[in-house]
Specification:
The strands form two sheets. The chain has a six-stranded mixed β-sheet, sandwiched between helices. It has two domains: 186 residues, Periplasmic binding protein-like II (D-Maltodextrin-Binding Protein, domain 2); 90 residues, Periplasmic binding protein-like II (D-Maltodextrin-Binding Protein, domain 2, 3-Layer(aba) Sandwich), CATH 3.40.190.10. It is globular. The longest helix is centred in the last third of the chain and has 20 residues. Strand 6, helix 6 and strand 7 form a beta-alpha-beta unit. It is α/β, with parallel strands linked by helices. The chain is 43% helix and 20% strand.
């Protein structure tokens, strides 16, 4: 009699285990879809109202997204998280975004989520004798280099006939600027909100706004081009959550100000006032692109970048069609 060959059950169980593992990657124990993970780097600043509200109010989770929020105090820090692979997408000011795109072709622009012509300001101490931009010559002025504020400051100085080289520019992060100003370690600083308003709460005064240059200073969202190409579903859900946040800040300004007060250290009244310096919404229209082109040309003229980025390669999403 022919002897029966034993069944190799180990192969059978391996198949079962692998099948279960694959199933578990997309379903939870109760059979519902598992959250889709996105590592999102953004700033803890007034310009980041949309991502902060979407995260704090659970709008991302409502779309089935599990956002790992990576919060930074400056755009270059967010950009570095994206560049290093620690983040999938990142929000940053226009100057940082342009530098990022010239640094590597792997990254591209998705959209702007906020603008604000007067969101950058130059602040001095309450007893300062400085009154005009010309008074800054020879003075110690703090700014975070590589940021949107940095680009705006250089443009404002150049437009007023002042050589940036005549000013002692000091590279400081925004959280250190107010204390440095009040301690007399610097004569002035340039920063975006909420830093100027935090300084005003402690007695500082505005020397000048960096507005009036025909630039909207858009805050951009960038991503890895290859990653974005594979994550169209996730990004549609991301856009829906951000648009819900846009509706929320329009309908509930006081609650928005309260949340941003907690996030930034501003009083709720000041937060509400500073929010009005910005316009929030996902956009990638002609005015945004014109602002980016203007900033890019200036940065190249100043030899901060060696080439103009190719804005024709940006991700094209019709935000109006995503509800």
């Amino acid at each position: 009699m022919k002897r029966l060959r034993p069944i190799k059950t180990n192969h059978f169980f391996i198949v079962l285990l692998l099948s279960g593992f694959i199933l578990n990657m997309t379903l939870t124990a109760d059979g519902s879809a598992k959250p889709l993970n996105i590592r999102f780097a953004f700033q803890d600043r007034i310009g980041s109202v949309l991502p902060i509200i979407a995260y704090e109010k659970g709008f991302f989770k409502d779309q089935g997204l599990e956002i790992k929020a990576l919060r930074f105090s400056s755009g270059p820090a967010s950009a570095e998280a994206l560049y290093s692979g620690s983040a999938d997408i990142a929000a940053m000011g226009d100057t940082t975004a342009i530098i990022m795109m010239t640094r590597s072709d792997k990254f591209t622009i998705m959209a702007s989520h906020a603008t604000g012509e007067h969101r950058h300001r130059i602040m001095v101490g309450k007893d300062s004798t400085l009154q005009t931009l010309n008074d800054l010559e020879g003075r110690r002025v703090a700014v975070k280099k590589g940021t949107s504020t940095y680009g705006g400051l250089l443009a404002a100085l150049t437009g007023s006939g002042i050589s940036p080289g005549s000013i002692r520019l000091m590279d400081l992060t925004p959280p250190t600027m107010v204390d440095a100003l009040l301690a007399g370690s610097i004569d002035a600083f340039a920063a975006s909100e909420p830093t100027p308003s935090l300084a005003e709460q402690r007695g500082a005064v505005e020397l000048a706004s960096l507005g009036g240059l025909g630039n909207q200073y858009p805050i951009m969202i960038l991503g890895n081009r290859e990653w974005l190409g594979r994550k169209k579903t996730e990004m549609e859900k991301f856009v829906k959550a951000m648009k819900r946040a846009e509706d929320f800040i329009s309908q509930y300004p006081k609650e928005t100000a309260r949340i941003m007060s907690v996030q930034t250290g501003l009083s709720a009244a000041t937060a509400q006032k500073v929010i009005k310096r910005h316009q929030y919404g996902l956009r990638l229209d002609r005015p945004i692109l014109d602002s980016l082109h203007q900033t890019a040309r200036f940065l190249k003229e100043e030899r901060i970048i060696d080439r103009l980025p190719d804005f024709s390669t940006i991700v094209k999403m019709d935000f109006h069609d995503i509800q």
